[in-house]
Structures are given as C-alpha cells and as structure tokens.
Amino acid sequence: MKLGIKVLGIVCLTASLCSCGNKDNVKLETLEDSANFCLGYQTAAMWAQRGIDSLNDDAFIAGFKAFDIDDEKMPLELDQELYSDMMQRYSVILEERQLAKMKTEYAPNIEAGEKFLAENKEKAGVTTTASGLQYEIIKEGTGAKPALFDTIVVHYNGTLLDGTVFDSSIGNEPVSLPLIPGALIQGWIEAFPLFAEGTKAKLYIPYDLAYGEYGSRDIQPFSTLIFDVELLKVKKGNPDAATMKFNQPMQ
C-alpha cells in the first residue's frame, strides 16, 4: 500500500509539472522530463542564494554539456590552477555584490548603530578603543586579568539596541568560555583582557566586532550589540592545547 501511495504521488507530481507553464514552453511529458526540470530549478535556486540572478544560457548549457565523467580535462583548455583562480575571482565579485545588497537591505541597522555609538562615546565613564569597541566599568575587579587562550568564567546578558535580549546566562550557571580568536566574537576577545576578576562592565560592540554582515540566529546583519558582563574567574590556558581543541573536527 505504501509503495502504491508513493507511485501515485510521483505520477501526480509529474502530471502537475507537465501542466505547469514555463517561459520557454518546454514540454514535460515524462517523469524524467519533470525531474530534469526540477534539477534545473534547484540549481537556479542554489545559485540565486549566492547572488547570481542572471545567466548566459548558451554559455551555461555549453559548459554543462562539456563535462565528461570519463575525461578529466578542464573545459576551455584551462588547467586546474587557472580554473580555480577564475572561479575564486568570480566568487569575490558575487560576495561583493551580495554584501552591497545586504548593506542596502539592512541600512537601518548600520545607521542606528553608528548613531548610538557616536552618542554613547560622549557619556561619562565610557571608553572607546582604537577598534571602535566601547566599554564602561560598573565595578572594578581586583583579581587576575585573562590573556588570550585563557578560559573566562562569566555571567552575561546580551541585548540589541532596542533592549531585546538575544542571549543570557542570568538565572543559570556561569558560563566558561575560551578566549580564542574565532571561538568568540572579536569584541569579547578584545574586551576581557582589559578586565580583572570581579569586574562588572557594559560592552557596546559595533557590528564589525560582533556578528558582522551576516548576523547570527536572532541577531540581524550589521547589528550593534550591548552586553552586561561579570568576570567571575580566570583559568589559565595552554595556547597550543586550546587551539588544538578548538580546531578539532566535530564528531
């Protein structure tokens, strides 16, 4: 019965695709026709996410037909190095195009962050570093200061500029985090070596020191972030061991 349902589903899908119009009026008369149409559609959707919104159809199809699984030669008489270089340069163009599009889409986030930080740096007690990071000491600690590759034990509360909490340890156990570049946002990597154990502080982190142009989960691209942090303890680390642990592939 289940097999019958699957076959019926495929037949219905094929019929549905065959009945759908397409701008090139390609006839979809068989299951293979419909599946090929879907493959083309999926390919276009995948590349659209990379910022490719138009193609030279003739060049694309010629390249597609040039592939021969039994022939390892690259198309256009290019060797692997030249081929890789060409595609890398094109990827840079696509990335720049996508970034420009996102800057336009999320311009309000950029403008709000710049306005906030410009006003905030004038407030008493706020320090601005060369990178643009801003911080304010609420309570000065007296213990050791962490260095890169140490582990910090902290409580924190992270908010957007409108006060929305996107992450917090408040009400839970303190969190242990390694000060490894790439493991934490750059704003934290820069800020915590400035603080001694016992310090309570507020961090005002511009987007380029936070989650950057792409954001993260509930954090939109180009978002300036605010953290209330408390450095509870510093655990001295081993740079080699910490880096090795961080770079290990996930099981």
Structure characteristics:
about 250 residues; alpha+beta; Chitinase A, domain 3; 7-stranded antiparallel β-sheet; elongated; disordered C terminus
* Topology-level CATH name of the domain at 107-238: Chitinase A, domain 3
Order of helices and strands: HHHHHEEEEEHEEH
Q: What's the total number of strands?
A: 7
Structural shape: elongated
Helix content range = 40-55%
* Low-pLDDT runs: 1-21, 246-251
The pLDDT mean sits at 83
Give the radius of gyration. 26 Å
Provide the β-strand percentage band.
15-25%
CATH class of the domain at 107-238: Alpha Beta
By secondary-structure content and strand pairing, the structural class works out as alpha+beta
Please tell me the CATH architecture of the domain at 107-238 by its name: Roll
Through-space gap between termini: 39 Å
What does this protein look like?
With 251 residues, the protein is an alpha+beta fold. Among the domains are: 1-18 and 27-39, no CATH class; 107-238, Chitinase A, domain 3. Helix content is 40%, strand content 17%. Strands 1, 2, 3, 4, 5, 6 and 7 form a seven-stranded antiparallel beta sheet that branches. A hairpin with a 5-residue loop joins strand 1 and strand 2. The chain is elongated, with a radius of gyration of 26 Å.
Question: Could you give a quick summary of the protein structure above?
Answer:
With 251 residues, this protein is an alpha+beta fold.
